[in-house]
Design brief:
- With 314 residues, this protein is α/β, with parallel strands linked by helices.
- Helices cover 34% and strands 13% of the residues.
- It is built from eleven helices and ten strands.
- The chain has helices at residues 37-47, 66-78, 99-110, 119-122, 126-138, 181-193, 215-225, 237-247, 260-268, 281-287, 309-312; strands at residues 25-28, 53-56, 82-85, 114-118, 142-147, 150-152, 177-179, 199-201, 230-233, 252-256.
- Strands 3-2-1-10-9-8-5-4 form an eight-stranded parallel beta sheet. A two-stranded antiparallel ribbon has the order 6-7.
- It is globular.
Length: 314
């Protein structure tokens, strides 16, 4: 396939080649609808250089035949795309102490590269969470803990200093959730110290909608953890646009497969400079002939791809 790379007046602003440590785009795989192998092949053939990771969201891999999963992970690896599990580890606890280790081995056999660990839904003590991170790393895979900004009230540490190892009266669990960004950051930092490769921030109560983004929480997380070690869930294109405007093309985002091209257009545009970022000449010459949709809009926001983008790669 011909390589289409973003061109800017400042060449050093281009995104690094894969595998990338920042500016990562992770794509949602099978979840609410059937994600066929043909569709995945089409996405990789047309936009594979813009996709860094593929996630089987919502534990969808548990419903798919193992042979089919292996085919999909092999396909992703051919395009230099890592494959991640979704939010599923919490269902393994009922299987006993060895269930998580068995899960890691199964993920390796199926071709997964990353295991996501939802700290909220697991509902386990912090030390066990850290143990899970170490187990994933010992198993040769990458660990990606997922954190939300709200915690069960019983998980919030009591005020006052306590000697390490001292006895504390167990706190009865409640259904009340309390926002605590400092606890999120502290646990995320400990996970990184334990070997976690990336911290995923859940969109709920943080960045679910662009008009209600918690910029204060996001800024605090980025300042403490850094852009390279943090990935945010962008649930819609407007939210992705907000992140690119605020933090530039190097922010790591998790998006739906239908948003990959729009996100790459945003990454390719330098939103903080007064110049236009453009694709190669082939894209421009093709798009200028488009009669079925508006001409590419050019301005401070750069180029907006038209509907003929999908035809470009046929």
């Amino acid at each position: 396939m011909t390589s289409y790379r973003w061109k800017t007046l400042f060449e050093e602003e281009d995104r690094p080649e894969k595998p990338r440590r920042y500016g990562v785009t992770e794509m949602r795989g099978p979840h609410h609808s059937l994600f066929s192998q043909n569709l995945l092949q089409d996405v990789f053939d047309s936009m594979g250089q813009f996709v860094d990771g593929l996630k089987f969201a919502g534990g969808s891999h548990s419903l798919i035949p193992k042979s089919y999963i292996k085919e999909m992970t092999n396909l992703a690896h051919k395009h230099n795309v890592y494959v991640s599990t979704g939010d599923w580890a919490e269902y393994l606890q009922r299987g006993g102490p060895s269930a998580f280790k068995d899960y890691i081995e199964e993920c390796k056999e199926l071709g997964f590269d990353t295991i996501e660990i939802d700290a909220g839904s697991l509902g386990i003590p912090e030390e066990i969470l850290l143990r899970y991170v170490r187990l994933v790393k010992t198993g040769g895979l990458r660990a990606k803990p997922l954190f939300a900004v709200k915690f069960n009230k019983s998980d919030i540490p009591m005020s006052g200093d306590r000697a390490y190892g001292s006895y504390t009266v167990p706190v009865q669990r409640t259904s009340e959730l309390v926002e605590d960004v400092n606890l999120l950051i502290r646990r995320a930092e400990r996970c990184l110290e334990a070997g976690a490769d990336m911290i995923m921030i859940d969109a709920d109560d943080v960045c679910r909608q662009a008009d209600s983004v918690r910029a204060d929480i996001i800024a605090k997380v980025v300042s403490r953890l850094g852009l390279e070690k943090t990935m945010f869930e962008a649930s819609n294109p407007k939210t992705s646009e907000w992140f690119i405007k605020q933090y530039g093309p190097h922010v790591n985002l998790f998006v739906d497969h239908s948003q990959v091209m729009d996100l790459e257009c945003l990454r390719g545009c330098n939103l903080d400079k007064d110049h236009v970022s453009v694709l190669g000449l082939i894209f421009l010459s093709f798009s200028s002939k488009c009669t079925s949709c508006p001409v590419l809009s050019v301005g401070n926001r750069g180029l907006s791809a038209c509907c003929c983008v999908t035809n470009l790669f046929e």
